[in-house]
Give the backbone structure.
Amino acid sequence: MRRIKRDEIVVAPNTTLLTEGYASNNLYTALAGFGLRHKTVSTNRRQVVGFTFPGDLIGLQGGHMGRMGHSFLTTTQMTLCVFNRADLVGLYAEQPERGFDLTWLAASEENFLGEMLASIGQRSAMQAMAWLMLRTILRCRALGLTLPLGQDGASMPFPYRQQDIADSLGLSLVHTNKTLAKLRARDLAAWTEGQLRVPDLVALGEAAGTDIATASPMPRPLV
Amino acid sequence: MRRIKRDEIVVAPNTTLLTEGYASNNLYTALAGFGLRHKTVSTNRRQVVGFTFPGDLIGLQGGHMGRMGHSFLTTTQMTLCVFNRADLVGLYAEQPERGFDLTWLAASEENFLGEMLASIGQRSAMQAMAWLMLRTILRCRALGLTLPLGQDGASMPFPYRQQDIADSLGLSLVHTNKTLAKLRARDLAAWTEGQLRVPDLVALGEAAGTDIATASPMPRPLV
DNA sequence: CGTGTCCTTGAAGCGCATCAATGTTGGTGG
DNA sequence: CCACCAACATTGATGCGCTTCAAGGACACG
């Protein structure tokens, strides 16, 4: 991938990098910082379709299908590696394994969205919230972004706003807040000051109606 | 693709071809018939993550990520073209454009699931249902599966059960039935005897809170 | 003619949205 | 250095859209 790397940039918090409906010449890999991808449904309604962590590829869609299906917004300051869309075609020819990996990533994203769908569609607010936190912290543990917490727990930076989670789960801000308070009261997950602390991953999994093995992400190729 | 084609099979209605959590050696292209992909959340709760029409690729995930993220179930009898998972790797090397197309397909699926997510998360039952019917009929029109109906309408076979739609939109069967009745009463969409009839696509789009251009699928590569 | 599958309709109740108000924190300019 | 404001978090009250429970109808099949 280094061959087609074009640049490395630092972006301010709360910046829209990619806009839904527009073509993008670039795609990025997140090196540091946090962001999110979202779709706009109507004025004052959006759906967050994913949280972006270091190591994630951003804008693959735009590179393959004329225009972006979602926008990308930074939450914190981010450091990004920049690639050029036009270079992708050549990459497939020269390094088929990389092309295979890209399909893998897209399929993996698809799988994640399917799980989100199942979560929003079939679970209660409480379960869905628990599932999201569990899924997030397990994924970030695989990335080395978490710190151990007690026997079976973990903590990690999670610098989003409650509104972001609400828009991700299709809940109102108010109900999101109350559900978070419940999770905190039951010692399942405490999310304060941008830090997510889960004292017992197994217990959180039970509240989510799933087990850790099911919620664990698969090992992924690096791009 | 013909090079790696292994077989052509006919499958009975209501048959599970791929099972969530298991690896699959095969992937398929639907030549005729209808089916659906679904995830099992718990006993007696599932999430339908997509309806499968002729021309669709089935099981790409299983070919790339060790095991399937969802099950595949036929609704009608289906005719399928069978490919072997192991042949995929070679395909990427020999025909990079095909590999590119596969990523395109996966990214396209991801995009669709994002839209489903937005629909379930942000829209009312009525809007979500209208959106699903519109999206479905527009996609099938591009495949040549629809017949024109009046000035701005279209009709197509849609041989699913109400429970399938309910599980797709995260609604109860009862409410799905009542919402369908409303759509029928308002002359927006009539779905009876396995046929979906939409007299005015634009009007349906208005009920869905979107316009036809936004809901239209992008042209796709054939595999 | 009984049995299973799917569709339909009514009634009751709950989970969540919406409305409204207050608290907290950090930034900004007088 | 404090008054002010904007952004985000929190909490209570009210009501609706949906789920769940229940029952019955239509049709196909052995």
Notes: The first strand of chain B starts at residue 5 and ends at 11.
